[in-house]
Amino acid sequence: MPQPVPSDLEIALQATPKPMSEIADALGFSPDHLEFYGRNKAKIPLHLLRPERMAQSKLILVSAITPTPAGEGKTTTSIGLTEGLNKIGKRACVVLREPSLGPVFGVKGGAAGGGYSQVIPMVDINLHFTGDFSAIEKANNLLAALIDNHIYQRASAPDLDPGTVVWKRVMDMNDRSLRNIVTGLGGKTGGVPREAGFNITAASEIMAILCMCSGVADLQTRLGNIYIGDTYDKQPVYARDLKAESAMAILLQEAIKPNLVQTLEGNPAILHGGPFANIAQGTNSILATKMGLSWSDYVVTEAGFGADLGGEKFFDIKCRTAGLAPHAAVLTTTIRALKYHGGKALAALREPDLEALAAGLPNLEKHLENLQQFGVPAVVSLNRFASDSPEELALVQERCRQLGVAAEIGEGWEKGGVGMVRLAEAVVRAAASSSGTFKPVYALEDAVTGKIEAIARTIYGAGLVTYAAKAKSDLKRIQRLGLEQLPICMAKTQYSFSDDPKKLGRPEGFELTVREIEIAAGAGFLVPITGEIMRMPGLPKVPAASGMTLDAEGVMTGLS
To answer: In this structure, what CATH number is given to the domain that contains residue 508?
Structure first.
């Protein structure tokens, strides 16, 4: 009888990491270049970027079908695929986002992989890591403090109207009570009272800027381009007008450097940035991806939630901005998610059900169609669970074969790299067949509404896009500010192609409503907000934090 797999935390704590000098050597540069944060993590200085080397590497995106609330294992697949590629003799590294403390202590858990496909040190990565999130939070809140001080001091240049300020404070925790607040209470010395609020740090435009910038100079320029609000005579006010960008950049001078760690099997892993994909662009930093491409033959990276969210933004925003050309995409799929989209109750997904599975396949098919529209070869990774029956696995593989797409069973969670060799081989074949180009869904010169509707109709399957009064007003402001050429970063539920999380499977011809459009001029995109999207999540009824323990020797349990 097979032995049960230990918990993620137990596996991570039992691992013996390689010296970081060996990880640097595996990438091909001297460990003397690294800036160490303890024994098992380090910063990579930006001078190690090698633009002339990047075109020789293969960039692989790992995305997923529309997920269940628990997620479908994209990070685990990304890490396992990297282990598998190294098993078959390829020089590969994985490039991932950093975890946010909100999900760690909420419901979803950390983002260091799972089972025997993890990056380590898992505890450090899931908690404070190298302090990047803290630096982003401080830079964001410095700007907030400067804005409120500018209003309090009654500075006349620029004559900022407090009622137009859109900038919010952030913290890296799920705290619904801070979504909407009133600041400036406490009399004359307490500031000017106004409505304000908090976002989670992963939703900060500072996070997006860090992930989109090409270097320190570009970082500072983008920080200066942050739109704050308007003057009383309706002129735009930017962070540069408050002379905020240099001080903010100083706080981010270490955070801009990608972080180097390792996988359980001792292969290089670069982690940097952590925007969510339902409210931001959902991909790691351009600098981290380019660092991987500078030193590895294969770079495996992931984009948050389904391919309709993080995947679309990876292609239309990140790759277009950075001049990257992905060579293949891996669509992570699970039997349980397909049954969920076929109408089976969440609590019954472990039960074999070929009928529900077949009914859920259109969700997979739509995601594959979308990837084909981008012109990138796709491979399906069928992330295996113990409850999956052979008949269910065979049904999905046969349907993929009919569609002309390779579908391999991924067993990285249980077996590490050995369980991902067949997937790695399929990815190598797909990447070899790639033209090294891709086709964006829209052109940047298209009208803002045209770009939104191209995503809604082509990627989501919507039949109609409508705009609330606030969104129509925002469109006029975008035109007035001359920002119509920016790409689109849709804010939408991750649980459906539509803006309604209850519409599972492959909904078609639905109406998508854009409530408002936020301006992220520093990051370089516009954010249409659909449905009930919140940029400050709340904790569940039983938070993961309530199941964590720490004993007298400092040994913890419950972290996942």
So the answer is: 3.10.410.10
